[in-house]
Amino acid sequence: MSAQEQAWDGLRRFVVTQRLTMTVNRYEIRALATDGGEGPVLAVAQQKRMAFKDQVTFYADDARTIPVFSFRARQAIDLGATYDVLDAAGTPIGLFRKDFAASLLRSTWHLEAGAVSAVGQERNVLVAILRRVTDAIPLAVHIDFTDPQGRPVMSSVRTWGLRDRYVIEVPDVRLDGRVAAAMAVALDALHGR
């Protein structure tokens, strides 16, 4: 296991913050301490807006020279596209896809990685409906992923603020931190599709 992979092994709490830019969605991922303090940057990711086929690469450095993992759509322009999560060598380590029909009411995602299979859905139906009616009010968005037995696998909570900021918790130790981070960024980057 490389040093970059070890940094993600056992990662159970982290924060994803979107940086404001004009042409790309840029994200910064930091470990989150139990006292709420943020650790050093674990990865930065960037996605071109309006790209024909979605691909997001996560880098270990701000200069974006050391790729750590990525996710990419299997096909171009598909409302229910499947996204593969790949390690630095391009080996698949997980996947996720949006459930388009279920997402008409509440955003719903399917996540798979190794022995983990989970469905994530917006926690609050009222907030989900309000979010679809207006983008003028920045609403807190909570998405909980559970396995088929109903056990929590991962949660993403969008906090209040001018910038998009998500607190991610991964109670299921079987879920690779890289897959959780890819899913967390996708929840923002692919949110409007």
What does this structure look like?
The protein is mainly β and 193 residues long. The protein has one domain (3-189): Alpha-Beta Barrel (Tubby Protein, Chain A). Helices cover 15% and strands 42% of the residues. It has three helices and twelve strands. A twelve-stranded antiparallel β-barrel has the order 1-2-3-4-5-6-7-8-9-10-11-12. The relative contact order is 0.19. The mean pLDDT is 84.
Name given to the CATH homologous superfamily: Tubby Protein, Chain A
Protein structure class: mainly beta
> What percentage of residues falls in helices of 4 or more residues?
10-25%
- Work out the radius of gyration: 16 Å
Number of helices: 3
Average per-residue pLDDT, rounded, comes to 84
**Total DSSP E strands:** 12
Percentage beta strand: 35-45%
Which of globular, elongated, flat, extended, rod-shaped describes the shape? globular
Q: Which second-level CATH architecture applies? A: Alpha-Beta Barrel
Classify the fold: give the CATH topology: Tubby Protein, Chain A
Largest sheet: 12 strands, antiparallel, barrel
Report the end-to-end length measured between terminal Cα atoms: 35 Å
Question: What's this entry about, in short?
Answer:
The chain has helices at 3-8, 125-133, 177-189; strands spanning 13-19, 24-32, 38-48, 55-59, 67-73, 82-87, 92-98, 108-113, 116-122, 142-146, 152-158, 165-169. It is mostly beta strands.
